[in-house]
Amino acid sequence: MSLIVLGTASHVGKSVTVAALCRTLYRRGIPVAPFKSQNMSLNSYITADGNEIGMAQAVQAFAAGIEPTADMNPILLKPKGDRTSQVVLGRPYKDVQIQDYYTETDMLLARAVEAFERLRRRYGHVVVEGAGGAAEVNLYDRDIANIRLARSLGLPIILVADIERGGVFAQICGTLALLPDDIRPLVIGIIINKFRGDIGLFASGVEVIEEITGVSVLGVVPYADIPLPSEDSLSLGDRRERPAGGLIRIAVIRLPRIANFTDFELLERYVPVDYVLPG
């Protein structure tokens, strides 16, 4: 069985959830592959055959016990300017402005679906990751990472929400209310992520969510600072725990479009690393 993991917003834990599902299936002896139709990231991974995909899909592939391939992330967008991105379809395709990119969404969606089908034929099971928030209503006609992909694949959907930032009831209920009528019935479960404290105290909250939405809460996941590679520069310097003391402190210039800054994350395990804005 394959499924889609969508989120109520960015950074709610979709990538980790997909990696966890892949690892769980792998440990049970079930072949599985990760998939994300479109990823926007300056941190990329080079596959064995020289193709380029998002770092998160590489991590998910390793969790599934398989080698990363271009089909796991057929479309990678690498921002180059405020309105320009490099489009990577395994290999660099072209630089486009965002309004021009949207004119090619039909072709790109078709490529993504073909990549998904190849993975499904090879592995039997595919865990699909959406991008950002699922309920971006102004983008529904061109959202090939969430709504249009879900419509094309027709797979069951799990919705992930982040309780740490607050407003989890509005996140979940608002997202479900805004989903298109043909997509909402595909949602089979909800995962509430990044809970701090005694999970038992949220039992009544789970009941409220299930009563309002009619969708089962599959689980409440406790917060954990998992040292996985970050996908964008918003996370730079956002580690909650840093090494204490020491004679060495490393300063890294935080350039506007710094790429592959995950190279510095290994240093963060041993010495303090400060990301300094230029100027």
Query: What's the CATH class of the largest domain, please?
Result: Alpha Beta
Mean pLDDT: 90
Q: Which residues form runs of ≥5 with pLDDT under 50?
A: none
- CATH fold description of the largest domain: Rossmann fold
> In the CATH hierarchy, what is the architecture of the largest domain at level 2?
3-Layer(aba) Sandwich
Could you tell me the radius of gyration in angstroms? 19 Å
Task: Provide a count of the helices.
Answer: 8
How would you describe what is shown here?
The chain has 279 residues and is an alpha/beta fold. The chain folds into two domains: 225 residues, 3-Layer(aba) Sandwich (Rossmann fold); 48 residues, no CATH class. Helices cover 28% and strands 24% of the residues. The strands form four sheets. The chain has a six-stranded parallel sheet, sandwiched between helices. β13, α8 and β14 form a beta-alpha-beta unit. It is globular, with a radius of gyration of 19 Å. The termini are far apart.
